[in-house]
Write a structure and sequence with these properties.
transferase; Acyl_CoA_acyltransferase; Arginyl-tRNA--protein transferase 1; 14 helices; alpha+beta; about 525 residues; N-end_Aminoacyl_Trfase_C; single chain; seven-stranded mixed β-sheet; globular
Length: about 525
């Protein structure tokens, strides 16, 4: 693999004020309120820090709910995969999949307390309307007009950067890529999925059934009792047979990667594919993936087939502002945006859209074939993603969380995410993580809550030095303190200050805020 170089800075265009649109949860026409910005490109570290402040992306649009005003407050939720133990209902879903793969058995009915979906957000209509609107609103023509002049200055500027030139004016590298499609310049060639755990050898016979194991334990117990009784009757010391091994709980990997018989009815393969049209595997499966998405939207969200356009699908689930990164200490697949495809007998039946970030795997969306709803693919994919996070952690120790998007307590059908424990919710005021068990009593009383119980606690990551914020203006990057000295409109500072407080000091100093 070629040596890794640091990515160029994130470039964002912030939309001042709040946006109101129809809520995808309670259907309030203008009840959903959020702040938003268009990310022409973004580093994985910047996005990691943003989601740790309540932001979330939908395509290249990055938004943050106005928590104390929106109709259905959306709290960022993360699960601890390293401590995760599957519940009884989770185990039922995994066993159901194994039975289907091994023998083709189709379970009748769903498991008790089983959620409808797993990582599927239901605010699709609002997201699409907003993305379509902002795709036009975003001044891409102005940005693309800069390409010519930037290209001529690029080489000269890069030389000054390498010589550690002035900290006042820094020209971002590879800014041309940011102003275009935003696709990674280097396609990822690694296609890996979760690897079976130890002992998951497909050539070995299947694990013994629980019923058979119970019978074996009972038989051994009866033999022990009979032997002890006979020894006592003959006045001999009691010599017990070896005790049956205790039934240790199986790990998540044991449950997922149980070996199948050679004559298994079905074959399931999970592939991790970079979300980039420069990747051949992503390209070759695009049409099949889009057809599956259309089928899902029509059946699950009752959309008309003609509404599901390729351009909409591409903007929402294929386009990503995240730049692919391959640091030496990172996961083998690198960081960035991916599609985790579930291939059953040679066809795609589900796709999980994922972002792999420095500290977590972040679930973006899931769509699946409604014909296989009996397999509870929402729950199954979430468990696979948790196991995948654990696998990535083995090489990249700091990558140890699984972000499930937003937890919406005021919407009962969105509470299922709280079933993946242990998990935390993000305090919307101080941006610290609080165990969900401590949050639920407060949420039962009020849909908006500050979870941090320390009344003196503040947002430690808030913007403290506005002049250090970075802006991109007239083909150059500069601190806001320099930029504002040349501006005649003092009202502009209100929007810049709003942006700085929302993204925090760290991101405001790293990301480039585009100014016209």
């Amino acid at each position: 693999m070629a040596s890794w170089s640091a990515p160029s800075p994130s470039l964002v265009e912030y939309f001042e004020g709040q946006t109101s649109f129809q809520c995808g949860y309670c259907k309030n026409k203008l009840g959903s309120r959020s702040y938003g910005m268009w990310a022409h490109s973004m580093t994985v570290q910047d996005y990691q820090d943003l989601i740790d402040r309540g932001w979330r992306r939908s395509g290249k649009y990055v938004y943050k709910p106005v928590m104390d005003q929106t109709c259905c407050p959306q709290y960022t939720i993360r699960c601890h995969p390293l401590q995760f133990q599957p519940s009884k209902s989770h185990k039922k879903v995994l066993k159901k999949m194994l039975k289907f793969l091994a023998k083709g058995e189709i379970s009748k009915g769903n498991c008790e307390d089983e959620p409808m979906d797993s990582t599927v957000e239901d605010a699709v209509d609002g997201d699409f309307a907003l993305i379509n609107k902002l795709d036009i609103k975003c001044d891409l023509k102005t940005l693309s007009d800069l390409k010519g002049s930037i290209e001529s200055e690029e080489k000269e500027k890069e030389k000054s950067i390498k010589k550690e030139g002035s900290k006042e004016f820094i020209h971002p590298q590879s800014i041309e890529e940011k102003l275009g499609s935003g696709e990674p310049s280097h396609p990822i060639k690694v296609h890996i999925g979760p690897k079976p755990g130890k002992g998951a050898d497909l050539s070995k016979p299947p694990c013994r059934k629980a019923r058979e194991m119970r019978k074996e334990r009972q038989r051994l117990k009866r033999m022990q009792q009979a032997s002890a009784a006979a020894s006592e009757a003959q006045g001999q010391p009691v010599c017990l047979l070896p005790k049956a091994k205790s039934n240790q709980p199986k790990s998540l990997e044991d449950l997922i990667f149980q070996s199948l018989p050679e004559n298994a009815s079905h074959k399931l393969e999970v592939r991790l594919v970079p979300a980039s049209f420069e990747d051949p595997e992503f390209n070759s499966s695009f049409n099949q993936s889009f057809s599956l998405y259309t089928k899902y939207q029509v059946a699950i969200h009752q959309e008309a087939p003609e509404i599901c356009e390729k351009s909409e699908f591409t903007r929402f689930l294929c386009s990503s502002p995240l730049e692919a990164e391959h640091p030496a200490d990172g996961p083998e697949c690198g960081y960035g945006s991916f599609h985790q495809q579930y291939w059953l007998d040679g066809k795609i039946i589900a796709v999980g859209v994922l972002d792999i970030l420095p500290y977590c795997v972040s679930s973006v969306y899931l769509y699946y074939d409604p014909d296989y709803s009996f397999l509870s693919l929402g729950v199954y994919s979430a468990l696979r993603e948790i196991a995948f996070t654990r696998q990535l952690h083995e090489k990249t120790s700091q990558l140890s969380y699984y972000y499930m998007g937003f937890y919406i307590h005021s919407c009962p059908k969105m509470r299922y995410k709280g079933q993946y424990r242990p998990s935390d919710l993000l305090c919307p005021e101080t941006y610290v993580w609080v165990p969900i068990e401590q949050c639920l009593p407060s949420l039962d009383n009020s849909k908006y809550c500050r979870f941090n119980q320390d009344p003196e606690a503040e947002d430690e990551g808030r913007s403290k030095e506005l002049d250090r914020l970075r802006v991109f203006h007239r083909r150059s990057a500069m601190p806001y303190g320099v930029y504002k000295n040349h501006q005649e409109d003092p009202s502009e500072e209100a929007g810049v200050l709003e942006y700085a407080n929302l993204v925090g000091q760290k991101c405001s100093e790293r990301m480039l805020l585009f100014r016209h």
